[in-house]
Amino acid sequence: MSELKELSWEVQETIQPGPFEALERRGIRRRHRRQALTGAGVVAAVTIAVLAAVLPLGNVTGTEKPPTAGTPASIPVDQGTEKLVRDQKSGAVAIAFATPTRWASVWTSPQPGNTWNYAAVLSRDGVRTTAPVRKNPYVVLRTGDEALALSMPTSMKGSDPTWAQSVMVRLTDQGRIEKKLRWAPPTTEFTDGDVLLAYGTLQALNPETGTLREVKIPGIDNADQPQRDTTGRWWLVGAKNSGVGNIYWTDDRGKTWGHSVISPGRTGGQLGVSPDGRTIVLIPGRKPRVTDDDPAPLRLSTDRGEHWTTGATRNFPYLSSPVAFDNGTGLALYQGKKRELLRPGAGAAFTPPADLGKLAGVGDFVYGMQYNGDQAITSADHGKTWKYFDPR
User: Fold this and answer.
1) The whole model's pTM is what?
2) Of the chain's two ends, which shows fewer C-beta atoms within 10 Å, N or C?
3) pLDDT range class, residue 168, cuts 50, 70, 90
């Protein structure tokens, strides 16, 4: 598989389903590799995988609270899910962290007839549970200090029969919560308790009720990368089908939207917003009808988008994953011939792990999934050093 195909696999947003052809090839490579393990080697590999799922991530700082007294250290898991995530042909699709010790991961396995099964694993401060196997993809996302998993319907039409199998699984300080997803008509506004996600369309999920509905923003055709700062402002990248991408934001849950042009003449874009909402790292999208050799500026704002500086310029298809920090700096991953972890506002680039395929952030904690493998890769020092663990 070419480097660009490997990149296209890993630069998917964490809430998007993975490309099946690439995943199947990854599964074949893993299966060949694991068949070489025999005897004590197999026992050791399985033991390490099990321990890695519950061991702490190292010397990291989080804001998480311990589970409520009486919460079990282990919660019964779905045996079908356990079989899927341990299967040699299965592969990790995505991971989302809410804190350094609270995360959810998505796994999928090929089935006869070119179909796929999906499942999810959730962990909260060392307590682990699973989400049941489904035919429809799972997405994982952060809401506050909690990570949750959703098995999505095929469409946002209320008549779609796949809603019956759609499910939300949470792991809270009260234990495991599972709810069926509930359809509701499209809306232009959402509530303070909703979390936004982009899965084909912009959608609002209410974690308490399981209600999922499409959100329409007047004047744009598509929206991507929604993220909320601590002021309550929601940010996203929006665009018309004709092309040019803008940064959009709302402070009143969709009643009104402000916007600014990302970069004249460029379509789409990628956005990273710091927790306090003041630092923004931006990668403008592609120019129309331009080849892959398209230099794109990596831009930084430390005043909520009022003013911008350009920290670096790299070829567009290999530049991705902007992350922003409250201290006025950020990160972005460049996967060209020379792999770099660019640091706008912070100085010289770092060299990222060779198998880091995508980057996301929660406060000062950053992470990504390994490509050609199933481990998560995490950093607690803004990308200077990294740790690996198996998110099963």
Assistant:
1) 0.81
2) N
3) very high
